[in-house]
Amino acid sequence: MFENLTDRLSHTFRSITGKARLSEDNIKDALRDVRKALLEADVALPVVKSFIDTVRSRALGAQISKALNPGQQFLKIVENELIATMGQANERLNLAQQPPAIVLMAGLQGAGKTTSVAKLAKFLKEREKKKVLVVSADVYRPAAIKQLETLAGEVEVDFFPSNIEQKPVDIARAAIDHAKRQFFDVLLVDTAGRLHVDEELMTEIKDLHAAINPIETLFVIDAMIGQDAVNTAKAFNDALPLTGVILTKADGDARGGAALSVRHITGKPIKFLGMGEKVDALEPFHPERVASRILGMGDVMSLIEQAERSIDKEKADKLIKKVTKGQKFDLEDLRDQLQQMQNMGGLTSMLDKLPGMGNVAQLAQSSNMNKQFKTMEAIISSMTPEERRNPDDLSGSRKRRITLGSGTQIQDLNRLLKQHKQMAKMMGKMKGGGMAKMMRGIGGAMGGLGGAGGLPGLPPKR
Q: Is residue 115 marked as binding?
């Protein structure tokens, strides 16, 4: 979502880095570029004006360490202001009330509201260990009720049935009564949306809010509609006491303006980011981490948390024991590693969170590395267990069978075998000689990224 903004700001910081010190002239030039970058990212005009004024006063006041060079000083000021604009820290859901804690979800039709209910239910169930009930009060779209029922089954939370003959207030009250009797911790209430803000929608949702008195009222907005998302959020905020925002479709080609504007315009924090269609694609919004990624400094904390949730620790421990004992790293092990990486969002997602790797992540994305890894996984899956353990013994006829079974070409298989041989050699260095040898091996492998034996799809090094 922030790629274009990151590129523009990186250019600005490079241009100011060569200066001897921060002066009024070079600050003025840098701020002009920052203003352009923010406006191109569809950030609301009042937010841009406030942002630029604050950065200017802090840069001219030199409220920063003299040990930093001008580029670093300016970067630090912009980073601090980005964090302040989006909210100083992650704000968790407030569920501290007599169960069930009621969460009302509001938003326009098509913003991803019903999907976000399911994502939030899964998040609360798995990460917060809550017993969750979901209910749909959208009586205008029968498909919405069925959709939520299907999604609830997918994320394995309870669904309270409703139908289009009922009134939204009656549905919500019945769901609350059921939640109390069955000792649910949280009740998520999905509401009707419209294609635009209208009086009927606002009256209905105000009545529903007054009837159920939710502890959290979350507004779901689509990052793809840019500044208009912020205007819609303001309209809802004027009608309802919103407590937070869920920004959906943040993995799309939106320009980031909504994320940078919504806190300033509404005064309400973004609490979650929706990062895709899958039901586990919901992440808590951490302003400091997002600011770090916008400025190309990575997001190591999110990467660590993702690894802790996604990596199969038993398989990881088994592989470490295997290679430290000098046992062979086979294709079964390679497939496990590819699957672990897919569970973490793929190579592009991982690289994007590492400091200074933004350009490499874009390169990996443009060369479709994730697709290449899926091809590798398909080839390995077409082999017998014996072939995975002993790939060096593959005959021509076996290779033809494997490529036919995986829908690939002989050259794809040969490339995979060459890459596996390099990795097996690198893993072998862990025995006895320890990590120092292995790191040298990794350096060699990374050096060969573009060659025939390197990772597929990347252009050769110059």
A: no
